[in-house]
Design brief:
single chain, 200 residues, alpha+beta, 2 domains, three-stranded antiparallel β-sheet
Amino acid sequence: MARVERARLDRPTCKFKKSSGDFCRRSVSEREDLCWQHARSWSHRWRSLTRNQAVSFIVAALGLAITVLLAVITFIPRITVTPSDPADPSNPFSASFTITNTSFVPYPLEQCGVMLYPGDISTEPMPFNPPKVYDMDTVIARGFTKKEWMGHTLRMDEKFTITIEDILHLHHQPPYLPTKLSGADIAIVVGFRPWFFPWY
């Protein structure tokens, strides 16, 4: 016990003098005279920490960062796009796409809308001949949309479904020969106004 008490008395402590006349006596590292609370700069505060204090500070900071990250992930709006099997097996474009609000927070997502961005489309035996005029209402930055695809309000777990067959047709123009889709690269992009940005 005598050795332990002596070790405690020999341990460096803060030399800050309180208004009562007593010293702070909080443990500090051997490199500093003032503890983290009374040091005048952040660099001196960090250097004043003992090994145990530094470890406790790092663990607390990591715990706070993980908590904030989990909270942010929880509140981030989530939208999923789920394709279905084609209604007509011979026409892959007859598949439908269901847009669902899968957020964890029970707040509605306003102004949900869908844009279709067709990329490379390959067909055989005839090459794909895109229609000169799409059956659509809006063209934005080479993307296509329709009125019924826009302006939805989705509450938690609510959904709506779109089909792209009326925009992309395999037999849209002459000579109307039987055409088989061999590959397609299309993007379904969903936009919405997050609940935490009411002015967006």
